[in-house]
Request: fold
Amino acid sequence: MLKVLGILGSPRYGGNSDMLLDSALEGAKEGGAEVEKIRLCDLKISPCIECHGCDETGECIVEDDMQILYPKIVASDRLFLASPIFFMNVSAQTKAMIDRCQCIWVRRYVLKQTIGKGREHRKGFFLAVGGSKNPEKFMGAEKTIRAFFATLDFTYEKDLLIAGVDEMGGIIKHPSALDDARNLGREIASV
Reply:
């Protein structure tokens, strides 16, 4: 069965990014996938301390809730990463999690290990919501997410970037965002 992991990087429960991710995961579940959602704000994740403790083993030596998250990421076939846009990039919670995947970078590029062994054709999807209508608002986040997905051996398959939505629950007023997310979830589950 296709394993779909949804990671929410928003510090706000029930916010726009949360609702967008829920719609995508509902679509994937309707399509027959096994889905799981993780809220980063529920986890204790310290920042990377660049100690190089992972250089020999590919295992992070910082003991916190990332130890729960690593195997879930590695075992997933599809990954939805949802984050609000703060200062033209992902939230601090999202960036801390990404930085802590340095140990997976070491596994892949230094130790030459396969990530997600036995799970070929892993695909990543980025869902983002931002308040301004600046056409460049997502560029920083997209670059960060592309590097993150590549490190984890996911193909950056598609994104759903919603601009001009800032108020709590404003995503509901968007003409297509939640339907687009649900359809994306269904689409990835049926492949």
